[in-house]
Write a structure and sequence with these properties.
MetI-like fold; about 70% helix; mainly alpha
Length: about 300
């Protein structure tokens, strides 16, 4: 009877791997929450010219430090109020999302390419190549990131592209360490040995066999480094060595509002909250990706 049910065309088939994967994605609350928040911020940045009611750079000294609409003296003309120069805060917050996302994505790509290339080379070839890459990683780890970034930016001069270049050239070490360890694990597996036996070229093995199988590790590290780059940019801008006025960077907005924090608290609270939500969303997406790609569906 059992054999007949098993061979019956109406027998219930087990869900495929793809169905199980998407089921884990949908049921992962952290991943879904982070994805929704991140998607909202990305859409806000992309549609900034359509959403922002005012020019984020336009000053109106007659309407300075107007409180947000939920305050007694607030106005619906400026939902989040205005800053010390009379610029609409809602418009500047929306355009500030562009700056933060641009910095996070650019730094992630630059540092990711450098670190991934070094990690793949060290993990796959081993020997002297591994020794050289390990020495380079050790030298980089011996350099305090924030102090080096401060020194370089103070010497060259602060600007958006200088911050992106400096952080991108300094934040590749975690990519290299993780990719090296992951490549060493994949390097000893059977399908890599089989590809070598049939004469597949080394670049094709690395790009076609090794890299796709360590991609989940790369995605997780990329999200962590992207969030870290956004926080570092905010710190540099707060110290006056990052994005320069009048660009509406969230870190710069916090720096400009520190003089008024006891009188107009919202000038710091609003960009600080947006910055916290963005970093939290990116980290939750990274943690969710790690959990979803884990063999048992857990981190």
């Amino acid at each position: 009877m059992t054999d007949l049910l098993a061979n019956s065309p109406v027998a219930i088939a087990e869900p495929s791997r793809q169905a199980q994967f998407w089921r884990r994605v949908v049921h992962h609350k952290g991943l879904m929450f982070g994805s929704v928040v991140l998607a909202v911020i990305i859409l806000m940045a992309l549609l900034a010219p359509l959403i922002a009611p005012y020019d984020p750079y336009a000053q109106d000294l007659l309407h300075r430090t107007i409180p947000p609409v939920w305050y007694a003296k607030g106005s619906w003309l400026h939902i989040l109020g205005t800053d010390n120069l009379g610029r609409d805060y809602f418009s500047r917050v929306i355009y500030g999302a562009r700056i933060s996302l641009l910095i996070g994505l650019s730094v992630m790509l630059i540092s990711g390419m450098i670190g991934t290339a070094l990690g793949l080379a060290a993990g796959y070839f081993g020997g002297r190549v591994d020794m050289v890459v390990t020495f380079i990683i050790t030298v980089r780890l011996a350099m305090p990131l924030i102090l080096v970034a401060l020194a370089v930016v103070a010497t060259v001069g602060g600007s958006l592209w200088v911050v992106i270049a400096v952080l991108g050239l300094l934040k590749w070490d975690r990519f290299a360490v993780v990719m090296r360890a992951a490549t060493q694990q994949v390097r000893s597996l059977e399908y890599v040995a089989a590809a070598e036996c049939i004469g597949v070229s080394t670049p094709r093995i690395i790009l076609g066999e090794v890299l796709p199988n360590i991609l989940p590790h790369l995605v997780v590290v990329a999200t962590v480094e992207g969030a870290s780059a956004i926080l570092l940019e905010a710190a540099l801008s707060f110290l006056g060595l990052g994005v320069q006025p009048p660009l509406p960077s969230w870190g710069l907005m916090i720096a400009e509002a520190k003089t008024y924090m006891f009188f107009s608290f919202w000038l710091i609270a609003i960009p600080g909250t947006m910055l916290a939500f963005l970093v939290l969303a990116i980290n939750m997406v990274g943690d969710g990706v790690r959990d979803v790609f884990a063999p048992n569906g857990k981190g």
